[in-house]
Every structure is written in C-alpha cells, then in structure tokens.
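Customer escalation, tier 2.

The customer says the design service returned an amino acid string that "doesn't look like it belongs to this structure." They asked us to rerun it and document both sides in this ticket. The original structure tokens are below, unchanged.
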C-alpha cells in the first residue's frame, strides 16, 4: 500500500505564517520543504501527493525523486514570546498578531538557522485539475487534525475515489507496480541544487538536433519551444537525447497531461476526445509528427506515455 500526503503550497504557507520564510516551490514541477516542517523526513519517493492552496486542491502526482542537502532559512519570531506562530493581517494598522501570546507588532525579530532542505520532483506525473476541488471534500481522509501543517498524511484509497474521474486517471495510473508509479528507493539523495543540472544544456542539444522545430507543428520561434523529457528523469539523469523532443509550450502542457500522444506504429498524433471540440487542435489528430525518421526518439518512451494517457481517456468516457 502506498502512502499519500497533502502539501500546502508556498504561497498559502507564507500567507498563513508570517514567521516562516525561504520556500521556493514551482507548482507542477517541484516542492521544497525543510527539516523544521512536521513530517519533513517521512515523505518518500513513490508516495502520492496532492497540492493545495487557499482551501482548494490543485492537482496530484507521484513523487518521483527527492534530493536533500544543507541550507539556511530565515525564521521570524514574535518579539514578545519568541513564537513563529503569528499571522499577517490586512485590515489592521498593526500588521502582525501572535497566536500563542496575543502580542500585536509590526516588526518581528529575525534569525537565520541551519536546516536540511528537501527538494521533491513530481512534474512527470503532475495532473492539475480542470476545476480545483474544495479541500473540505477530503476532510475525512486526513490522518490528523493539524490543519495548519504544510505536510499532512492523507488516506490514499479515498483519494483514488475522489480523483479517478475528476482528473481522468485510469487504472494504469494507480497501479503500484508496472504503471506510472516510480520505484521506491527510500531515503533522500544528497544532491540538492544539482538535481536538474544540465536542463538548459539538454534543451540546447535538442535545438542542435532538431533546429527550432516543434515535433508537432513544425518550425516555431525558439523562444516558445520547451524540452520535453519522455522518460523519468531520476532513472536517466544524463539527459538521453533519444528521449527528448522540442514542443511548443502549450502543446507540451497537453502532452504532459496525457491529452496528446504520439503513436509510434504510424508516427502520427492522437488527441484526447475532449480536445475534438477545438478546431485548431482537432486538425492535429492523425497528423504526422514533424521529426525526420532518423531523428525519431526511442519508441518505448512514447509507447508508455500513450498507454497511460489513453487509459485516462477511457476513464473520462466512462464518467460522462
């Protein structure tokens, strides 16, 4: 049985707690936390995560890779009692009020402390919800009542029922082996800040390989092209050029969400049924990819992506 966690976005954490600074997540790609956070060492590779902000659930993913390393964190405290549990107020002349002691103040004390920083990467399987889900619908699934924790355990089977149709995720996505869930390695590798070294270089190499050419629409300005990994980065950290394509930014998003796939039997595109109502996307269905035969990526990567994506299409059809 896999474990699941609810993660509070950086923006929400900063809004709630004026005493904790130093986060830098990128929604849909990575989540950053440190050793001062409850459950900081409990989240593991292979766990399921949901991201929430402002009382809304934004999406879910499998945690692919967690790296860690030393870091520094600024922490602000109440000048009266030293607590970090104070909140900013927008409608008062005095900006902060300390929850534990009730002190009101405008300027907190500040200190810099040594911490272990954890960087979790989940972008490969990130599935944002088309319509954010009210967090209160998941209230009975939480493993504790600590609603202010940035990281909270949550019951995984209940999540499956809530998200199966809401995010169009078929059985293959939920399988604990042989599906999309990453292998469970355990622990956290000590390579923070170097985890994605070479990403810009990878894009440069793809531009050299393909030119300023989107694999779906052909020639495009280089500024709008992104490097799409077709494989799990944690398994192949050396950037396999046979496992990458250049995609226009909007199409990259659709590809990552499993709404657009490449069929390697014919090297043509297929689009999800939900996209057929959009004429500029519908014309892509069955269109050949814009990649020379000798430069086509490793078929296995695309076959895995297609199987997972179309599994989700079936789930959406069943729910309609």
């Amino acid at each position: 049985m896999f474990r699941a966690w609810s993660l509070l976005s950086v923006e929400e954490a900063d809004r709630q707690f004026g005493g904790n600074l130093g986060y830098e997540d990128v929604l849909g790609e990575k989540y950053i936390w440190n050793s001062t956070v409850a459950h900081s060492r409990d989240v593991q590779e292979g766990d399921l995560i949901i991201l929430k902000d402002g009382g809304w659930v934004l999406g879910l993913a499998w945690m692919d890779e967690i790296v860690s390393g030393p870091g520094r964190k600024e922490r602000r405290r109440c000048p009266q009692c030293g607590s970090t549990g104070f909140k900013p107020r927008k409608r008062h002349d005095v900006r902060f009020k300390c929850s534990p002691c009730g002190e009101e103040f405008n300027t907190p004390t500040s200190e810099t402390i040594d911490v272990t920083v954890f960087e979790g990467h989940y972008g490969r399987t990130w599935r944002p919800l088309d319509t954010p889900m009210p967090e209160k619908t998941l209230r009975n699934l939480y493993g504790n009542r600590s609603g202010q924790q940035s990281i909270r355990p949550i019951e995984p089977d209940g999540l499956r029922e809530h998200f199966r149709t809401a995010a169009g995720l078929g059985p293959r996505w939920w399988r604990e082996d042989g599906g999309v869930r990453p292998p469970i390695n355990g622990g956290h590798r000590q390579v923070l800040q170097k985890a994605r070294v070479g990403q810009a270089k990878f894009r440069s190499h793809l531009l050299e390989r393909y030119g300023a050419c989107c694999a779906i629409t052909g020639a495009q300005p280089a500024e709008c092209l992104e490097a799409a990994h077709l494989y799990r980065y944690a398994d192949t950290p050396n950037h396999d050029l046979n496992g990458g394509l250049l995609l226009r930014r909007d199409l990259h998003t659709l590809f990552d969400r499993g709404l657009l796939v490449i069929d390697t039997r014919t090297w043509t595109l297929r689009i999800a049924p939900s996209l057929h109502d959009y004429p500029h996307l519908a014309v892509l269905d069955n269109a050949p990819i814009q990649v020379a035969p000798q430069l086509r990526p490793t078929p296995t990567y695309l076959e895995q992506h297609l199987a997972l994506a179309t599994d989700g299409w079936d789930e959406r059809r069943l729910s309609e």
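Tier 2 assessment: The sequence is consistent with the input. Residues 258 and 310 are 8 Å apart (CA to CA). The chain has two domains: 4-70+117-174, 199-319. Sent an explanation to the customer and offered a walkthrough call.
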